[in-house]
Amino acid sequence: MRLLIRYLNRLLDDRRGATAVEYGLILALIFLALVTGARVVGTTTGDMWNNVSTKIDSVVS
Q1: Average pLDDT of 3-32?
Q2: Is Membrane set as a keyword in this record (predicted)?
Q3: Structural domain boundaries, residue 7
């Protein structure tokens, strides 16, 4: 039992992976922002082209 407690204490005190986790979280936030921005731009661009198409159709007919 004492060995298990020592192992758990050592595991809790180990900070070697903290930087990698922090970088991973930062990259995840950047990726989320890029995906959100791409969706907004894509929707706006799609609406714009639909509007252009409608206006061209009305001029042609």
Answers
A1: 88
A2: yes
A3: 2-60
CA gap 41, 34 in Å, rounded: 10
* 39: its two tokens: 């969706």
DSSP H helices in the chain: 2-13, 18-60
Kindly state the DSSP code that residue 61 receives in the 8-state scheme.
-
**Which residue is associated with the tokens 């930087």?**
19
Longest distance between any two alpha carbons in the chain, whole Å: 86
Q: What angle do CA 39, 40, 44 make, to 5 degrees?
A: 115
Question: For the chain, what is the domain count?
Answer: 1
The reply to whether the predicted model has a pTM over 0.85 is no
Q: How far apart are CA 35 and CA 37, in angstroms?
A: 5
Lookup: tokens for 38: 């791409």
